[in-house]
Amino acid sequence: MPSTMRDDPDYRRLYYVRYADDFLLGFTGPKSEAEEIKQQLRDFLRDELKLELSEEKTLITHAISQAARFLGYQVVILQDDRKHTLRDSHGVKAACRSINGKIGLRIPKDVIEEKCKRYMRKGKARHRKELERVSDYEIIMTYQLEYRGIAQYYRLAYNMTQLGKLKWIMETSLTKTLASKHQIPVPKVYEKYGAKLVVEGKEYKGLRASIPRPDKEPLVASWGGISLQWDIKATLREQPPRLGANRSELERRLLAEFCELCGSDKDVEVHHVKAMRKLHEYPGRPKPAWVVRMIALKRKTLLLCKRCHEATEHGLPMTWPLISLEEIKARRKRTRSRY
Ligand SMILES: [Zn+2]
């Protein structure tokens, strides 16, 4: 009981999706024709655009038995004869294999392993000595930003609950870091920092540290509260997250609380952007203001107000005045003397 006809020998279909210089073609038809398409693409790129197709990265995969890689995801054709839905056809209910032939996105196993490895030594979660000299607030914030970036990036993956393993390794590494810094056992860390987090009406167990501020709400950093619910309609806003950012000043910048483009202090939040390396890759095009600013500040994060954040997300022109680098430095200096 297949739910759609798929073995017609004359049936062909070609889908195309591109992001920057990465693209994926989905072809229904024989492999020999897929090879031909690849050859034509290679010729076109070379003759018309003077570009070389990377042989090593341009693979033809049989999507039912293998997964294709695209933007850090595995793209697969779903096959599960156990999943049925009742379909109403002219008043007659019939069971159909509901997911066969549909596209599924997965987090590759090696990506999870790779991310976990950064927090491990000899097969176990390790503490991060390099973080012991910063505040509890910044330690928790660092882990949360790293994890949140990955979890948000993989929201389209139907197996995103696999990130539970990474979360556990990271949490163990985080609590070990706090334990080592304060010379206390890990259970004490949970006693001291454990908190109930409520996010969008849902309760999560997490960790929390805060910094009191004069005449203002304290700054709070939390670990946890990120749903691993698959969201196929999610819009991805970020590049595949890369770890190991230099965040030694992040806390000070958060305390300063101003937009690093326009200087506004309204709704300022951390904008986590692609690795610096990527920022330099705007060949032949003028770099957008935010890219120039990030390069100048040598940061992978920018604190942005809502307006500037939305403009950078959607590539809109900024028609409002931006503050200078000197102004940013001066403001940071003022914060430094305040706290
Ligand atoms: Zn702004």
What would you say about this model in short?
Strand 10 and strand 11 form a beta hairpin.
Describe what this molecule looks like in 3D:
The protein has helices spanning 31-49, 109-117, 136-153, 163-182, 186-193, 250-256, 276-279, 289-297, 306-314, 325-338; strands spanning 13-19, 22-28, 68-70, 73-77, 84-89, 92-97, 103-106, 120-121, 124-125, 194-199, 202-213, 216-223, 269-272, 301-304. It is of the alpha+beta class. The strands form six sheets. The chain has a three-stranded antiparallel β-sheet with strand order 3-4-7, with no helix packed on it. Helix 2 (109-117) runs parallel beside helix 4 (163-182), helix 3 runs antiparallel to helix 4 (163-182) and helix 6 (250-256) crosses helix 10. It binds zinc ion. Zinc ion is lined by residues 259, 261-262, 264, 304-305, 307-308.
Task: Give the SSE map.
Elements: E1 13-19, E2 22-28, H1 31-49, E3 68-70, E4 73-77, E5 84-89, E6 92-97, E7 103-106, H2 109-117, E8 120-121, E9 124-125, H3 136-153, H4 163-182, H5 186-193, E10 194-199, E11 202-213, E12 216-223, H6 250-256, E13 269-272, H7 276-279, H8 289-297, E14 301-304, H9 306-314, H10 325-338
Antiparallel strand pairs: 1-2, 3-4, 4-7, 5-6, 8-9, 10-11, 11-12, 13-14
Helix pairs in contact: 2-4, 3-4, 4-5, 6-10
The structure holds zinc ion.
Zinc ion binds at residues 259, 261-262, 264, 304-305, 307-308.
